Amino acid sequence: MNRLEIRISGEFFPHKLCHSVLTYSNWEGVSLCRTESLLSLRCQLKKFIGELGKIPRYHRTDHSSTATHALRRGLSARDFNAGYLDLMSAFGMTPTVIERAKPQENGDIESANGHIKRRIDQELRLRGDRDFGTRAEYEAFLGEIVRKTNLSRRERLEEELRTMRPCDAARISGYEEITARVTRNGIIRVRGRVYSVPSRLVGETILARLTEDTVEVWCGGILQTRRDRNGADDGPEGLDYRDIIGNLVKKPGAFRNYRYREALFPNAAFTAFYERLRREHPEDRADRIYLAVLNRAACEGEENILAALELLENDTPFSLGALEDLLASRTQTYPDLEDYRPDPGEYDILVDAACFCEAQA
Questions:
Q1: pTM attached to this predicted model
Q2: pLDDT for 207-221, tens place per residue?
Q3: Which candidate, 274, 198, 210, 205, places its Cα nearest to that of 241?
Q4: Contact between 167 and 92 (Cβ < 8 Å)
Q5: 315 is in which domain, residue-wise?
Q6: Number of structural domains the chain divides into
Q7: CATH number, domain with residue 54
Q8: Do residues 216 and 258 share a domain?
């Protein structure tokens, strides 16, 4: 789908469509996905079958790595992946596969792939803009295209549904679960990507629930945090400085060569502030000051700290003492509240009124 140059809030949105078609009626459905994975297939089947309320007997696919793997290196023969077979078993479907290099055996979906991309492109041209405010807005746009496409197929769909078995797709989970150990730095590694978790979980074994877009961290049956799955493998996008700043404040010397240092600059304002510190102080002292300020931001909010930094003079070297004095002077004070003593007679009035209402009833 990248050739269609879809944007979300002005930023290019790389994605694919997971596309399913019923071979008799050609009723179709799509869902957004980041990669061609078993998880994206699980989510699409759950959505598609959930909308139908019925389930086909067979599921046909090509020889993608999502469903199949080579039996031995160098051989062309392939077999179904264990995860794919488990998914088929969960839905009660029989897996089938086309022969290698014969896409015509998947003619319904191969043809539909081209048609729906052309329809989406035409609708985008009529819309006059390929930028959507949110992902949900884009999904609604796609859903309307599919709905209009399926209108002419309703009659054949009704015939098809009469031959299919009922299925409650809600009982099939739309996520994958993986266990992971939290490192002493408050980080977990899931599917080649790193994510930070609250420091209270250090040393614990957590349960990560993965969807196409998020990873939820569960411990003791309680949701601890949620992270986006966007970004490159082993990149800093899954890290929140609030989770890891506590350890770095204790060991500021580690900041200079910290592997995920980019995660400790939450926005351009903090980057500019750090550059100022490096101009005004030796590097090791600049690191200590920056980490201390970032720690205050984690505790008291970025906006409060950035507002205070803007008020400090730029013509004199920055000091933590000046920041502390400024924050202390801005601390809100509240007036003493008047001592209120309730009148017991007011309670008696309420009791009498309640008794009167009960007598009337």
A1: 0.67
A2: 999 888 889 999 999
A3: 198
A4: yes
A5: 245-361
A6: 3
A7: 3.30.420.10
A8: no
* 300 and 333 inside one domain: yes
Can you tell me the distance from the alpha carbon of 298 to that of 239, in angstroms, rounded to the nearest whole number?
Answer: 13
The answer to whether the CB of 286 falls within 8 A of the CB of 280 is yes
C-alpha closest to that of 184 among 247, 236, 251: 247
Angle at 97 between CA 92 and CA 101, to 5 degrees: 165
Residues 61 and 111 in one domain: yes
For residues 19 and 121, state if they share a domain.
Answer: yes
Of residues 232 and 315, the one with the higher pLDDT is 315
Q: What is the pLDDT of residue 136?
A: 92
| 269 and 136 in a common domain | no
Mark which of 122, 155, 171 sits at the end of a domain: 171
Q: Which residue from 107, 23, 108 is spatially nearest to 57, judged by alpha carbons? A: 23
3-class SS of residue 181: strand
User: What single-letter DSSP state applies at residue 241?
Assistant: H
Clarify whether residues 65 and 88 are in a common domain. Answer: yes
pLDDT digits (tens, 9 = 90+) for 91-150: 899 988 877 766 666 777 788 888 999 999 999 999 999 999 999 999 999 999 999 999
Residue type for position 231: G
**179 in the same domain as 167:** no
pLDDT in tens, 68-92: 766 555 444 568 888 889 889 988 9
Question: Which among 327, 312, 242 has a CA at the least distance from the CA of 280?
Answer: 312
pLDDT at 75: 44
3-class SS of residue 220: coil
Please indicate, yes or no, whether residues 28 and 128 belong to a single structural domain of this protein: yes
Question: With b meaning 16 or more CB within 10 Å and e meaning fewer, what string describes 228-237?
Answer: ebeeeeeebb
